[in-house]
Amino acid sequence: MLTLAPTLNVCRRAPSRLIRHRLYAALRDFSSSPTRASALSSLAGTAPFHTAYVLLHTHDPPSSYPARSTSPLWRAFTMKARQWGGTVNFVWSPALRPHPAYTGLGEEPEAKQRHTEVYSASVFSIAHRHGRLEIPELSLANLDDVDEKLRALVAHAASRGGKHAEIDGTGGEGVRELEGLDRRLHLYVCTHGARDCRCGEGGNEVARAFRRELAKRGIGAKDVVLGEVAHVGGHKYAANVLVYPYGDWLGTVQAFDVPALLDEILAWHARHQERVAQSAGSGQDAKVEMPPLCPPFWRGRMGFHKEEQIALFQRAA
Phi and psi (nearest 5°) for 37? Predict the structure, then answer.
């Protein structure tokens, strides 16, 4: 539990952050060719390794979540997913509908006793780096089935060197492919203030800045999904922004970074989708190593261990 003094000291807008901005302003080249970003390479390699990211859709933003979840379903799924490199988290976004039977995070005593937790969920993985899969319904009743299918999907992709895998034989009612894939760009900001006030303060500022910037540009949820997620790890890197389906994690983002940051993310996304379309037309595999996204803020990428993240950053530099 946070005491009053540390909370005030940690959450106060630190002068060092402002000094850091002035010092690195000239170095914040948002181009995905980090020739001048090597001075900021300390972030590379800090994203936790994961082969898939599963987001459980909720009605409420993370600002209302408890500091640590005691959800039986989340705990059970997390334990299973860890065995194959999966990470499970909660998300709130107006663009991601919760399951009709969803009633909360499973914290209520009645929900725990009756095992009534039900979610719809989004899945991003190394098996389909170009889009999102959907789990229409997830509960303790079908958890083993969903876990088995995701485990098989990731294992097949890993055996092919992380290349795109077809979903045949792993879909069914547990994991549904959305008309090929939901290829929208997804931006998730950690705003879990009860877990760490830096995420609550800085994360919410960045989330609001993205919301304003997207609205100013007339970009809606049909093209970009903006959401807020619970604890992702790395409070000191707040605000953390997760960019999917590619799985690039960005850290130390501040509200004033958002306009230029969004420019680079949209351009990077367009280039990647163009490569996917070209590879589909030629019949070749779409697995092409993209350079780090927004190098000054780049923590790492889904499917890459720490050493691989650092090596990718160095190759691009």
Answer: -95, 0
How many CA within 13 A on the CB side of residue 314?
8
**Would you state the structure tokens that stand for residue 214, as one six-digit string?**
């997207």
In 3D, which of 62, 67, 126 has the Cα closest to residue 90? Answer: 62
pLDDT in tens, 225-274: 999 999 999 989 999 999 999 999 999 999 999 999 999 999 999 988 88
Longest CA–CA span in the chain (Å) reads 60
Q: What is the C-alpha separation between 266 and 121, in angstroms, rounded?
A: 24
Q: Are the C-beta atoms of 122 and 52 separated by less than 8 Å?
A: no
Taking the CA atoms of 156, 160, 163 and 169 in sequence, report the sign of the dihedral they define: negative
Residue 156: count other Cβ atoms within 10 Å of its Cβ.
Answer: 16
Residue written as token pair 């940051």: 261
Report the alpha-carbon distance of residue 298 to residue 292 in Å, rounded: 7
Continuous H helices in the chain? 4-11, 15-24, 72-82, 109-114, 143-159, 197-198, 204-216, 258-282, 306-316
Share of the chain above pLDDT 90, in %: 63
pTM: 0.84
Reported as a single tens digit per residue, the pLDDT across 55-90 is 999 999 999 999 999 999 999 999 999 999 999 999
DSSP-assigned letters across all residues of 92-120: E-TTSPPPTT--SSS-SHHHHHHT---EE
Residue 283, helix vs strand vs coil: coil
Extended beta strands in 181-267, E state: 185-190, 224-229, 241-244, 248-250
Strand partners, 215: none
